[in-house]
Amino acid sequence: MGFIFTSGDEKPVMEARTSYLFIFCILVFPIHGIALTRQPDLRNGVFVPSRPGHALKGYVFHQLLVGSAIRCGNACLMNDKCQSYNYGNTADSDGKYICQLNNSTGGSNPSDLVVDEGFSYYEEPQLQPNQVKINCYEGLCQNEGTCKETTEGYFDRCECSTYYTGKYCDDSKARDCKEILNMGGTSNAVYPINPDGQGIIRVLCDQTRDGGGWIVIQQRKTPFNANFYANWTTYEEGFGNTSSEFWLGNKAIHRITKTPRQLFIYLKSDQNEGTVKYYNFTVSDDSGNYRNQFDTVQQSLAAGNAMSDNKGREFSTFDRDNDSNQYTNCASIMKSGWWYDSSCGHSDLNKNLPLWDTWFDYLKLSECCMKVR
Questions:
Q1: What are the angstrom distances between the C-alpha of 175 and each of 179, 208, 216, 234, 286?
Q2: Sheet with 46-56, edge to edge strand ranges
Q3: Which CATH class is domain 46-127?
Q4: How far apart are alpha carbons 21 and 37 in whole angstroms?
Q5: Do domains 46-127 and 133-173 have the same CATH topology?
Q6: Closest-CA residue to 42 (of 16, 68, 10, 80)
Q7: Phi/psi class of residue 304: alpha, beta or left (left: φ > 0; alpha: ψ in -120 to 50)?
Q8: Is 31 exposed, middle or buried (0-12, 13-18, 19+ CB in 10 A)?
Q9: Domain 174-372 carries which CATH code?
Q10: Which CATH class is domain 133-173?
Q11: Any idea what the Cα angle at residue 232 is, between residues 226 and 236, rounded to 5°?
Q12: Where is the Fibrinogen C-terminal domain positioned along the sequence (predicted)?
């Protein structure tokens, strides 16, 4: 199966700046269900745009782009930490609105609910116990979870499939592919992980090479048809297909490498293989331009240390020139995105013909990948 890195958000169907109540339905909502609630929090699924032109400041724990206020409410309902949200009043060029999830409310922190004409503040009225109950319905329990009812026929809990957990099976039990392997996931396949508690990332796990437990963050295969000459945002979000060629995405790579990892480079030609292993590999967040760090290298099969000059470099694309060469844009020259040094480097596994010029057979390279564990 392949990753899907694009958003499925719909275009806005309602204006956010009205006094109406919005009832948010997750997937298919049956007629006999009143509103979505999450015991014991008594979430009722009804949000009121209680303060247009205001936003709750200091309590945002997650921000995303959505196509409508309904989608923003959906995101809040599906996150146990969310108690309210700030919804942007103006769409961007793609028709998306800013959705800021808050872990508190204006009612609890009135001095932090301040004037901001760019947002409208939404809060969910609280219900008393036993006011709202729902039935099981298709899609309530996610990721092939099974919905279980009480003896009265109301929703009781979700029984999750092997790798999932959470109230609605919307989280992963595993932080990485090594934990997936320990749970019995021995096939090379796509699995859900949550490396930092911030939500699921679906990753390709290599469970067979060098003891398994590897998260594949990049993969290239001849005839190298995938277009890796992409802009900054595309490299942030990730692109491609796990069955052939892909880049996982700098946002995801940062989340995965908040805990320092081993980085394994695999190179293959028609007749030879080369490998390099780096230790304590990390990638910063966007504020650091996804700068890499790593140390000690272990080489085998004469692959060489082609990334020696790329250590500590910021990620660079044709539209975000972060290389250390003041005279040229390495990403434009290489038609790629990478951690370039001033000479544009001896390595770039994202260029059309992947480059690792310390390996004797790199001109015949037919396959390469980058994995972390």
A1: 7, 19, 14, 24, 21
A2: 22-23, 46-56, 113-123, 84-88, 97-102, 60-66
A3: alpha beta
A4: 16
A5: no
A6: 80
A7: left
A8: exposed
A9: 3.90.215.10
A10: mainly beta
A11: 80
A12: 168-373
Residue 29: pLDDT band with limits 50, 70, 90:
very low
Say what percent of the chain tops pLDDT 70.
84
Strand 84-88 to strand 46-56: parallel, antiparallel, or no bridges (unpaired)?
Answer: unpaired
Polymer length in residues for the chain: 373
For 257-301, what is each residue's pLDDT tens digit?
Answer: 999 999 999 999 998 999 999 999 999 999 999 999 999 888 877
Torsion of CA 307, 246, 206, 346, to 10 degrees: -10
The domain segmentation of the chain, as residue ranges, is 46-127, 133-173, 174-372
Task: Indicate the burial class of 296 (C-beta count within 10 angstroms; 0-12, 13-18, 19 or more).
Answer: exposed
Judge whether residue 336 has pLDDT over 80.
yes
Residue 177 structure tokens:
């592919």
